[in-house]
Design goal:
Length: 213
């Protein structure tokens, strides 16, 4: 099935961010068979340019792009810095607004881009994972890191669609690794792309469910 033109730039950005992932391309249902998580502790944040409300753990603070890059340069290895800077550059090149949140005590980065409204179907999500797999060999030749797919899920609700993918990122030289999570969400005629980088595999689904579009 041919992907809608509206989501092609977003797919290309995700390929750059998450390319070289391993594993099959099956897309499961997100939040399936999970108990409601209504009593999470967090702080509300408002994306003033887009009318969207987030809820994040209390440790998160909002950062400018320049402040975040300075912080990265002081915290991570050169390779991790280059990967994260490239990810930031690709996010900022998307049409829409870019917001960065960072939790210094737990070293987790949460980036969100608002993008032109583009509903995504399960077929589109599967196509996206297929494109990522096609690019993995090229990326492996040009990088000292390897991405392993942890999960990829999709859910369609009345008026909303959610695609989620999690990857473990390993440096081929050394024993350092981290996790990247990507969410593509369309709801209420708005679409967002979320990227989360974390030293551990943190469950952000309860906070995603608290977003107000």
């Amino acid at each position: 099935m041919i992907l809608k033109k509206a989501i092609v730039p977003i797919i290309l950005c995700l390929v750059v961010v998450l390319q070289s992932c391993k594993g099959d391309i099956k897309v499961d249902s997100i939040f399936e068979n999970e108990a409601p998580k209504n009593n999470i502790i967090g702080k509300k944040h408002f994306l003033e340019e887009d009318g969207i409300q987030l809820q994040l753990p209390e440790e998160f603070e909002r950062y400018s792009a320049a402040k975040y890059e300075r912080l990265l340069d002081s915290l991570v290895s050169k390779k991790e810095f280059e990967l994260e800077r490239e990810r930031l550059r690709n996010m900022r090149n998307l049409e829409g607004n870019n917001y960065i949140y960072f939790a210094p005590d737990i070293n987790i980065t949460y980036m969100i881009n608002t993008i032109p409204y583009a509903p995504i179907r399960k077929q589109d999500a599967q196509k996206l994972l297929g494109i990522i797999r096609q690019n993995q060999n090229i990326a492996s030749k040009n990088s000292n890191v390897e991405y392993t797919k942890i999960t990829a899920k999709y859910r369609s609700l009345t008026g909303a669609q959610i695609f989620k993918a999690i990857f473990k990122v390993d440096e081929k030289k050394g024993d350092r690794f981290f996790y990247q999570q990507a969410y593509f969400i369309s709801s209420n005629q708005k679409s967002v792309l979320i990227n989360i980088s974390s030293p551990v595999d943190v469950d952000f689904d309860p906070y995603i469910e608290k977003m107000i579009f």
